[in-house]
Here is the input.
Amino acid sequence: MEKRRLRLGMVGGGDGAYIGGIHRFAARLDNHFELVAGAFDVDAARGHRFAAANYIPADRSYADYKTMVETERNRTDKIDVVAICTPNHTHYPIAKAFIEAGFDVICEKPMTTTLEDAIALHELATSSGRFVGVTYTYSGYPMVHEARLRVAAGDIGKVRVIQVEYPLEWMATAIEQQGNQQAAWRTDPKKNGRGGSIGDIGTHAYHLAGFVTGLKLESLSADLATFVEGRSLDDNAHVMLRYEGGARGLLWSSQVAIGNSNGIRLRVFGDKGSLMWFQEQPNELQYTELFGLPVTIKRGRDDMGQDTKSRSRTPPGHPEGYIEAFANLYSGFAEAIMARNDGRSPGASASALPTSYDGLKGVAFVDAVVDSHESGSSKWLTPKFV
Ligand code: NAI
Here is the structure.
């Protein structure tokens, strides 16, 4: 493949949308992508205005994703990859259409709203040879990679206990009834899927715990609750987890946890030590050796693993955060795509990337959580894909 930036298209992410903007920042940061086309909004006119304001040529601002697929596939300068930044229920049909037309895909989580669609999408990704990356944001942080490397190196010994939580406060009242766009579709089972907080943010926590420990989930038992009146999906979930090798876990996701802006936090306890990471202080990792004092490991210092260093941009003391973590995923996706196109092995930045199998596992996890809750919380279930 000629040496050039990847041509990126986007579906969703228009005016007033949340995550599309983060994708655009992330795609720009390391200079591997150029945004050239999009169907940015469910409202075509608003999407065209957004495109014009964002330097997208008028002939590449599309009224809908189907027109985008059909037009782009016939261009000589067609997009290489599309970022899907729309509500959950649209991910499957959009991803399927782009993959079938030969495009690579970067898809938001949860990958689909049903397990059936997740299986079909993963199979399509595998059989077509198209790259499908899923944006499990927290696996882009350097210190999360450091935690993963340290668990794998045996620094905390055999993992005994995993505590992972993702508390948010923004849906503590019925904002979906007061015109909040993001809350409106997240509380609609047809658009969000079966799991409320567990699908929206519990999937991040589940991925983070598995990513750092490398452990496979064996079974789970869940208790879901809906605290805000009029909501039909859970806004709080507690899930007990049993991992291979005997480790036990507890996952908490909540959209009603007042005082928490974005409190995703992971604590892993082994028989020789422990590691703790908190997203609101993402440049630090706390490590405690058995009988030792807690030590704060800071991003940017020399004694980090290669996977950590390669995802770190600024010297110690200059904070990095959310945008950089997201950009690490984008750089990994670019490397995976370019390496495949060039017929070479991908470099380090593409290691441990979340792909369609992680997306499938996330949807299977939500399904098992809701099944367990519906069966009275006492039933331990094994997700179909772990
Ligand atoms: P949002 O409601 O802010 O934005 C959705 C956008 O998609 C809007 O611009 C809307 O007009 C557009 N849209 C809807 N249907 C469309 C269609 N058929 N064609 C073209 N555009 C369409 O939603 P938000 O919060 O940005 O979430 C979008 C996705 O990102 C969800 O799947 C969500 O779970 C995920 N997300 C992921 C995060 C992460 O950390 N990775 C964080 C926040 C959201």
